[in-house]
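Q: Hi! Curious about what Transcription antitermination protein NusB looks like structurally. Here's the sequence.
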Amino acid sequence: MCKLQRKMTSRRRSREFALQGIYSWLLTGYDISHIFSDMVSHLREMEDFKEADIEWFNVLIYGVLQNHDNLIKKILPYLDRPLKSISPIEHAILLIGSFELIEHLEIPYKVSINESVELAKSFGGTDGFKFINGVLDKLANSVRNTEIK
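A: Let's find out. The predicted structure is below.
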């Protein structure tokens, strides 16, 4: 139980660090190679990075940035406002959640949504978690229909 609990905590830390990297990328518009060489290296130097699941951090950063356009196409139909009006934090959280839902079927959809909601509660606006939950729930109904039934 303790080992499983620690693993979940390390995955959550990975998501938090990935969120920081993706957020920076959204704000700066730097190309992916700059994000990997400079920003990701800066995150790795942070003291509490050792608590993260480094492999999962890499999967999230590389996966989200390399699949950005496809992820946006998948979530756009479920947004109730223009993408440009979404805060960069919520945008980054939606990218992480949608990446997990679409590309990592081994993670139960409820876990992916819950982890995204927790990120939004910690880092997003007051009611941002409700928006994140609604969008990812609709996406899950589309891409994980069999699992949900």
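A: A fun detail: The two ends are 29 Å apart (CA to CA).
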